[in-house]
Amino acid sequence: MEQFPLRIGAAVVHKIEETTISIPPAKFFKSEAKVEEERATGRPGASGAPEESSGYYETAAAEEVCSKVRALEWMPPTGIDGDGNLQLAVQMFVIETPGGTRIAVDTCIGDDKSLGPNHEKFHMKQGPFLQNLHAAGCDPESIHFVLCTHLHFDHVGFNTVLRDGVWVPTFPNAKYLVAEKEWMSCLEEVKAKGDDGFAPFATILRESLQPIVDAGLQHLVSSDHVIVDEDSCKVRLVPTEGHTPGHVGVVIESNGTSAVITGDCIHHMAQLAYPQMGTWYDANSADAADTREALFDRVASEGAILIGTHFPVPSACFVERDAKGSGRRYRPRPCSCCAASSAAVAGA
Question: Smallest Cα–Cα separation from 311: which of 327, 335, 290?
Fold first, then answer.
């Protein structure tokens, strides 16, 4: 059942989908043992999954990752396909406060982006995302703030669109908010790697980030910045570092209800069961794992809603502790009762 538009107290969250990434578990997740090894040595692993020729995918460690993920009996059928591949949604959320402020969170991959051979499926792609945005009633001109939880390619792409050969802001009336720590880390990454690595960072900067700076729309903020503070609604950032050095989540609090939009603090529901399972694309998997543990504990204790940036349907859930043991920590609990009707949204 689709949950969106999702009501959080007096606020409403819209979801606009772009595409889905399908990937074998072992090519995305690194084992808990690998994360613990990195923690013990103090040396984060290189960003990017092992090469096919490395032989890693025939190892016991790779098989353990796949087995653990595929054995989760509570996993929604949308989370893993018939071949056992993870399904990762690429989507943007738009928060609409009772005062009428609209905040777009993470702008997906984008069209016409130069992503190179490591992301051939999405290189120079065209898609219906902007039409989907209009269909959701969230025209680009109506957005007041854009917040990127971090600056990876699948979270910044629709910051800009290509118009007459020039990259221009997609949301011309918005302030684009970036955590200052994340921005400085991004610049260091570009300086150190250029377009080398799992994503062409220099090209991403040129196509999706620098045009925002040049237009005077970028605003660097603290990692605990308050975006909106109304009588019945507050939207604020929370530091969720690890996947990237300056990663942030977005907290919505309204009329006694709260929710967290995760960004890449968590990529897939399997990490609810195994928070210490990192990804090959983390800047620091040990820090990311500890961040997840703390977030899940807080969300479970407070009864908050977890809105997963990469969760396919259902993209939002409550979190509860898993009493079954077997090393599992948490599990999702449905929150479909929070879905807002079309009439309710229209009257919000």
Answer: 335
Supply the DSSP symbol for 265.
Answer: G
Residue 39: half-sphere exposure toward Cβ, Cα within 13 Å = 16
**Level-2 CATH architecture, domain 6-346:** 4-Layer Sandwich (3.60)
Q: Which residues contact 37 (CB under 8 A, 6 or more apart)?
A: none
Per residue in 292-312, pLDDT tens? 999 999 999 999 999 999 999
Could you state, in order of their start, the residue ranges of all structural domains in the chain?
A: 6-346
Of 182, 333, 313, 345, nearest to 249 by C-alpha is 182
Q: Please report, for residues 30, 76, 227, the alpha-carbon distance to residue 269 in angstroms, rounded to integers and kept in the order given.
A: 15, 9, 27
| pTM of the complete model | 0.95
Q: What is the DSSP string of 75-104?
A: --TTTB-TTS-EEEEEEEEEEE-TTS-EEE
Residue 17: name the closest of 156, 132, 117 by CA: 132
What is the C-alpha to C-alpha distance for residues 226 and 218, in angstroms, rounded to an integer? 16
40 touches 277 (CB < 8 A): no
DSSP 209: I
Radius of gyration of the chain (CA): 19
In the block, residue with structure tokens 């939207």: 235
Least confident of 88-92, 114-118, 334-338: 334-338
Residue with tokens 């898609």, as numbered in its chain: 127
